[in-house]
Each structure stands twice: as structure tokens, then as C-alpha cells.
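Subgroup meeting minutes
Present: P.N., E.W., G.H.
Scribe: E.W.

1. P.N. recapped why we're keeping a running log of single-chain structure predictions: easier to compare across weeks, and new members can see raw inputs and outputs side by side.
2. G.H. added today's entry (133 aa).
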Amino acid sequence: MEREKAIELLKKYNQEEFHVRHAFTVEQVMRYFAKENGEDEEFWGLAGLLHDVDYEKFPDEHCQKVPELLKEIDVSEEMIHAICSHGYGICSDVQPEHEMEKILFAVDELTGLIWATAKMRHPKVRKIWKYRV
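Output recorded in log:
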């Protein structure tokens, strides 16, 4: 899967700046952990980028609509499982099995704290964010 197609799909279903920013933040943190663990940075990053693809448009069906939406860009079953597992026990019965899935589960929640800290420490982080996207 190409990153550009993933971004197009993300933005097709997410227009709120917060949701898009959150997706890019999770992507970057997942890439960091992939590198630290000697894993596939592209796969881990794309899982982070697309993990909430269905949340803005279908909040009551979060993690349930993911397979349908990801089929639009021919995403692997492995990626679909990983993304669905990040809502385990909350909105999904797909259990995280692999290390990456467990990290995604944790990173999803932690990135809010990371973003708030960055914003407080660097008042111009919004300009940095706009440039990065």
C-alpha cells in the first residue's frame, strides 16, 4: 500500500484537523517504535496512520467499519487485524496478538499526552504541524 493512497483515504473520511493530526502523530510514533524494534517502519507507520480511519464518520461503529473502508485501497488482512485490534475491549473484540498491535493499542492513547506536551513546550508547534503535513 502506498502512503499517498492511505493519506487520501484518511482525509476522505476525516476532515477535522484534530483527527488528521492525531493520525499523523500516531504514524510517527509507530515508525519510531518499529525502528527501535528492527521492524517494518512502513507497515507500522501505515497502521498508525489509518488506525482511526472510521472514527470521525462512524464513531458508533469504530473498528467495525475499518475492514470495509480499508478494502477501498486493498489493504492486507494483517493490516486490518492490526488496526481493528487497537480498539480491543472498547469497541472491538479483535485481540492484539503481535507486538506491533500491542504498541498501537498503547500509542493511540499516549499520543494525546505527547501532543499536549509538545504544544505546551513549543508554542509554534501548530506552524510545524502545518508544514509537516
